[in-house]
Write a structure and sequence with these properties.
Blueprint (H helix, E strand, L loop, with lengths): L2 H15 L4 E4 L1 H7 L8 E4 L3 H7 L3 E5 L4 E6 L2 E7 L1 E3 L11 E3 L3 H6 L9 E2 L5 E2 L4 H6 L2 E2 L5 H7 L2 H13 L2 E2 L1 H10 L8 H13 L3 H11 L12 H7 L9 H11 L5 H7 L4 H19 L4 H7 L1 H15 L7 H10 L12 H8 L5 H15 L7 H17 L1
Parallel strand pairs: 2-5, 10-11
Antiparallel strand pairs: 1-2, 1-8, 3-4, 4-5, 6-7, 8-9
Helix pairs in contact: 6-8, 7-9, 7-10, 10-11, 12-14, 12-16, 13-14, 14-16, 15-16, 16-17
The structure holds adenosine-5'-triphosphate and magnesium ion.
Adenosine-5'-triphosphate (ATP) binds next to helix 7.
Length: 401
């Protein structure tokens, strides 16, 4: 048994010694079989939440209404969830309340995909009633039971299916894919935050190209915030180089190709945090500049290395030609720069007011910019006295003429 399970084994034993059943379940088993890094080791048990709490000294109530207790053990956190099914589904969302069930089998049955419905006992033996191991071997995403019913119960599962294609490089089984096309409109009942969570994981995965293609093919894309009807534009621009882009770069790509109106409003619809929206929009400005012209020193300096690299990478992805973003050359340019941001300039606004005997105003910003550019271009050294002399000379002459 792999170390993450070994570490958590005493939790299973404690539950079993108290007369309950307990198994490892969910994503950790899938990732173990795929030899991927294991994140959260989840446990399913026949013990009810209060019984779980009574057995472990350190627990947190994170979702008792869903049957989940967080057990803190040896520095780790483990979600221990009572075998459950879900009560009637309403509004195509997972219900507020749950029914506890007696058997592991019933619990595995309510899980989304066969690859996520495998359990493992304390001896490392797998319980796989829905042939999840075969699905993993064949790299297939398939719902447990009728895909139509399962997506009708909880429409977010459609997003989860496609996000897993990006994370795992799997294919969605034909019936499951057909059901996504059929039920795509149900996604409108799902809260934007939950859609965003899945979409970000999709963008972060190694195969976003394949996943975005699926979103277009199934028309699920139309039910994502702000993307109604964007399939044709996006589909025309999709190509495998998108798998080279980071999450932030993919947002820039979407902004560039989806024919969106107000880009700020679009990012807002996705409920992205303000700081992230701001940085994406700022970088998008440099991408637009790059689409007009090559980088010059001032543009590189204004963007900064991160935004410049992002804009350059997306620029190449938009060109759909041989992949040659000049990221390395840009890196060297940044290394050669005398200053890389205003705070590195040896003079401040206060210096200027003192030297020119004038009070604050827009002239300060202009003069600082001039100084920055002169230092950047190598016209003057980044030295307080050198800049003072250069500015004095330049501006006195100006007032004389
Ligand atoms: P990840 O590695 O991204 O965490 P995961 O499979 O562990 O993937 P979680 O969201 O942590 O995903 O969910 C844990 C388990 O709960 C899943 O493996 C699956 O069995 C079940 N599950 C999660 N969401 C749903 C859902 N919407 N419908 C049915 N079962 C679900
Ligand atoms: Mg998980």
């Amino acid at each position: 048994m792999l170390p993450p399970f070994q570490t958590a084994l005493p939790i299973l034993k404690t539950l079993e010694d108290a007369g309950f059943e307990a198994f490892f379940v969910g994503g950790a088993i899938r990732d173990m079989l795929l030899e991927r890094p294991i994140h959260d080791v989840d446990i399913a048990t026949s013990a009810k939440p209060l019984e779980v709490k009574a057995l472990f000294p350190h627990t947190i109530d994170i979702g008792i209404e869903h049957g989940t207790v967080l057990v803190l053990y040896k520095g780790g956190q483990y979600e221990v969830t009572t075998f459950r099914t879900e009560s009637e589904y309403k509004d195509y969302r997972r219900p507020e309340s749950v029914w506890y069930v007696d058997s592991l089998l019933e619990d595995l049955k309510r899980r989304d995909f066969t690859m996520n419905a495998i359990a493992m006992d304390d001896a490392g033996k797998l319980v796989d009633p829905f042939s999840g191991c075969d699905a993993i071997r064949n790299k297939t995403i398939q719902t447990v039971g009728s895909p139509e019913e399962r997506f009708h119960e909880d429409a977010l599962r459609m997003m989860r299916a496609i996000r897993f294609t990006s994370q795992l490089g799997f294919t969605i089984e034909a019936e499951t894919k057909r059901a996504i096309s059929l039920h795509a409109p149900l996604l409108q009942y799902i809260a934007a935050e939950r859609i965003t969570q899945e979409f970000i994981r999709l963008l972060e995965g190694p195969y976003p190209y394949e996943a975005l293609k699926l979103l277009c093919e199934t028309k699920l894309l139309s039910y994502l915030p702000g993307l109604n009807g964007a399939e044709t534009r996006l589909e025309a621009k999709l190509h495998p180089d998108l798998n080279r882009l980071t999450e932030k770069q993919l947002w820039l790509y979407l902004l560039a190709v989806c024919g969106l109106g107000n880009k700020e409003a679009f990012l807002h619809q996705w409920r992205l945090p303000a700081s992230k929206r701001k940085e994406i929009l700022r970088t998008f400005g440099f991408l637009q500049k790059r689409l007009q012209a090559e980088w010059d020193l001032a543009a590189l300096y204004d963007a900064g290395e991160t935004a410049a690299t992002d804009a350059e990478t997306v620029f190449w992805a938009l060109r759909q030609e041989k992949w040659e973003p000049r990221v390395q050359t840009m890196k060297e340019e940044f290394l050669k720069m005398k200053i890389t941001e205003r705070s590195e300039l040896s003079v401040t606004g206060t210096d200027l007011m003192l030297w020119f005997g004038k009070s604050g105003g827009p002239w300060i910003k202009e003069m600082l910019r001039e100084s920055e550019m002169a230092v950047l271009n190598g016209e003057i050294a980044n030295d307080r006295e050198a800049i003072r002399r250069w500015l004095m000379c330049k501006h006195q002459r100006e007032t004389e003429f």
